[in-house]
């Protein structure tokens, strides 16, 4: 084994000790390369489907044509799995599932549970009641997620059997589709920030107000407060995101939907008087009178048995007030 001469060993050790000391004391410096100044600034992300300055829409109405008048249920409802031959319900029974159009962005009415992944809510329970009356098994439901603007086309194309999606019964819509009797009565109000001075429609002048596209809420708020700038979105959940980003000042729709949004953010509140009533009905394709009568029979049963109140108490107890089960008015 060859050994290093003593003077050289001492020099090597001295150099190593010096380097070690420099590292330990942080005296070794490596200059960073120059960075150019930023060339852009970040803003809030833009949600897909957002539209500003929505064209003026007609004020919704259910009174001019007595829109809530509907067909009487059959005198004797068929038993599950025993639908009348050649009926709409018999076709659904043969297929093996009820196809229901709804959305998953209307908290408390139809939304996806973040833990189980199941779609649930007030509208979902109504769908299960209809499926149970046809199959004797309320789980035989296939949900198709629709935006508010897609609801009528889905019924006209018959890609769904029914739409149960906080859908207001109006004269305009009755030209394209049919409805059941009302299963819920809502009141349009305003969602604002707790520290905001917005307490009613008067304070919405020159403010940005969100509503989902294809809903009756837009026409009503434009008629009541024409100075509001309407921002339309694909879903009500998008309105919540825009509020949290500070891109809008308020949102307006039915109180039950707004309560679901407020339940997700403690900085929001539902304010103001009722801007008008909305009667929710089950949307049904034109010409399916047997299905209208059948669904009305299901709604009649859940009102009479107290099941409707159970569903309301489960999902909508957050509301400080509310109507009871709406009473049907039949035209035959």
UniProtKB/TrEMBL annotation:
Gene3D superfamilies: Periplasmic binding protein-like II. It holds the Pfam family SBP_bac_3. GO terms for biological process: amino acid transport. Residues 97-319 form the Solute-binding protein family 3/N-terminal domain. Keywords: Signal, Transport. It comes from the Bacteria. InterPro entries: Bact_solute-bind_prot3 (IPR051455), Solute-binding_3/MltF_N (IPR001638). GO terms for cellular component: extracellular region; outer membrane-bounded periplasmic space. Belongs to the bacterial solute-binding protein 3 family. This is ABC transporter substrate-binding protein. It comes from Gordonia lacunae.
């Amino acid at each position: 084994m060859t050994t290093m001469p003593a003077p050289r060993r001492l020099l090597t050790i001295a150099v190593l000790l010096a380097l070690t000391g420099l590292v330990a004391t942080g005296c070794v410096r490596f200059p960073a390369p120059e960075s150019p100044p930023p060339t852009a600034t970040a803003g809030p992300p833009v949600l897909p489907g957002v539209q500003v300055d929505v064209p003026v829409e007609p004020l919704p109405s259910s009174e001019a044509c007595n829109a809530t008048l509907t067909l009487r249920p059959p005198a004797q409802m068929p038993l599950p799995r025993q639908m009348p031959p050649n009926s709409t319900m018999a076709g659904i029974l043969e297929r093996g599932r009820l196809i229901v159009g709804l959305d998953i962005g209307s908290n408390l009415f139809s939304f996806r549970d973040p833990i189980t992944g199941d779609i649930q809510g007030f509208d979902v329970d109504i769908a299960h009641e209809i499926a149970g009356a046809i199959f004797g098994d309320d789980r035989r439901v296939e949900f198709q997620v629709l935006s508010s603007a897609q609801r009528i086309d889905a019924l006209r194309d018959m890609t769904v059997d029914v739409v149960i999606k906080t859908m207001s019964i109006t004269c305009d819509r009755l030209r394209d589709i049919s409805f059941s009797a009302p299963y819920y009565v809502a009141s349009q109000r305003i969602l604002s920030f707790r520290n905001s001075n917005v307490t009613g429609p008067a304070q919405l002048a020159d403010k940005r107000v969100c509503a989902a596209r294809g809903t009756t809420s837009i026409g009503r708020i434009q008629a009541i407060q024409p100075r509001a700038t309407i921002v339309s979105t694909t879903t009500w959940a998008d309105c919540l995101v825009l509020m949290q980003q500070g891109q809008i000042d308020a949102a307006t729709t039915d109180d039950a939907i707004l309560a679901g949004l407020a339940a997700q953010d403690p900085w929001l509140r539902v304010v103001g008087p009722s801007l008008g009533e909305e009667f929710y009905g089950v949307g049904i394709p034109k010409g399916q009178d047997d299905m209208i009568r059948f669904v009305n029979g299901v709604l009649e049963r859940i009102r009479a048995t107290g099941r409707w109140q159970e569903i309301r108490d489960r999902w909508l107890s957050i509301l400080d007030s509310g109507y009871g089960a709406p009473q049907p008015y039949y035209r035959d």
